[in-house]
Write a structure and sequence with these properties.
207 residues; globular
Length: 207
């Protein structure tokens, strides 16, 4: 039986995690902007944090891909092709910031044939061109860059199919992976700063 979420305690040396965090801080802190929702809106009642996009060409992309492939082989067995948009999101939660319950994928995010607009030639052509090529999010992943003593609150909480709450590990360097359709949230940070590197892997639309 597959699990909704799994994680690896990567046992990365503290110096290596510090190197990753230092590199992201120096290269991307100046690019941090208010985080947006899946539909590209800013809604601080739903999500309050800052984030910046990191290309998968950065060396850390290959490191994360190893764990994505291992988790998929050991648990999910999904048809995966790449990290969504060939980029990852470096995210920073400061005091009072949070991300309410949400999913990273769902049927409403898939493009659909324009059946009601069958008279629209451009829409029909678009549907034909994208048929069989559409990519959807299947796995979400989180690399913990902050340690449990760096912040209070801010737990990553997931809900499995039975409604059971799961709190992801806070250990620095942990790699957490879960089905992108899983409801999850980041609780409000009471003090300190929570940093993570997150992303989504995609594959052909479910059939």
């Amino acid at each position: 039986m597959a699990l909704t979420a799994i994680w690896y305690y990567t046992n990365l040396p503290e110096e290596v995690v510090s190197l990753i965090e230092k590199g992201l801080t120096e290269s991307y802190d100046k690019k941090l902007e208010s985080s947006r929702l899946y539909d590209d809106r800013i809604n601080v009642d739903k999500r309050s944090s800052t984030s910046a996009w990191v290309p998968t060409s950065e060396w850390i992309g290959g490191f994360l891909w190893h764990y994505i492939m291992r988790a998929n082989r050991e648990n999910f067995l999904y048809d995966l092709t790449q990290i969504d948009g060939e980029s990852m999101q470096y995210t920073r939660y400061g005091e009072g910031e949070h991300y309410d319950w949400h999913t990273d994928a769902g049927i409403s995010t898939f493009s659909k044939p324009n059946a009601s607009n069958h008279h629209n030639v451009d829409a029909k052509i678009g549907d034909f061109l994208t048929a069989g090529t559409e990519m959807v999010r299947k796995l979400s992943f989180v690399l913990q860059l902050s340690g449990p003593d760096d912040y209070e609150g801010g737990n990553l909480q997931l809900m499995d199919e039975s409604g059971r709450s799961i709190v992801a590990p806070r250990l620095r360097g942990s790699m957490i992976l879960f089905d992108a359709r899983t409801p999850h949230r980041v609780r409000k940070v009471r003090s300190g700063v929570r940093k993570s590197l997150v992303g989504w892997t995609v594959g052909p639309r479910w059939k």
